[in-house]
Amino acid sequence: DADVTQTPRNRITKTGKRIMLECSQTKGHDRMYWYRQDPGLGLRLIYYSFDVKDINKGEISDGYSVSRQAQAKFSLSLESAIPNQTALYFCATSDLGTGRRETQYFGPGTRLLVL
Amino acid sequence: GQQLNQSPQSMFIQEGEDVSMNCTSSSIFNTWLWYKQDPGEGPVLLIALYKAGELTSNGRLTAQFGITRKDSFLNISASIPSDVGIYFCAGQFTGNQFYFGTGTSLTVIP
Q: What is the DSSP string of B83-103?
């Protein structure tokens, strides 16, 4: 499995604050993703990047921004946090294998609480 | 965005019983993935399927890629307490984003 790390693992912040969640991977995968998970809902895609120069919005990108600093690093920012952004956030990586077969590997998650 | 229909939402079973769950989509996929998530942790990949009709095993777990390419199934045989967790399916049409099911919560009663 890809070694995907996320920092911080837990974060409490206040409404209006700017925060950054960081993701690093050591497997050399080109593709990186940010998802959020809410109770009763599946994972929903916030942003994704297929390489360092490629950034794409997912289905719920409003209120978020990202930065792909290097192949191994993909950061998610909340410019002005609001309570409904309280959720579990996951970073994932993938690479196209033989026959364009893609498999995603997830980090351990960041639990964010916005007060 | 598309979400996959995963059923059942939850299961309570006796240790030693077999478990079946499935995932359906309104769209055709080329890839189906199955994950397990423990509380407070990230999803861990269990099985990957890349071909319609494909049947793949990983220990006591067996998953199948439906021949219509719109569904997938996961079976767990002879369940044990450590099988407890939430199981997610994910589907993808090659090159596009992955879509996820809402999960099946499994409780194994010793």
A: G-EEEEEEEE-TTS-EEEB--
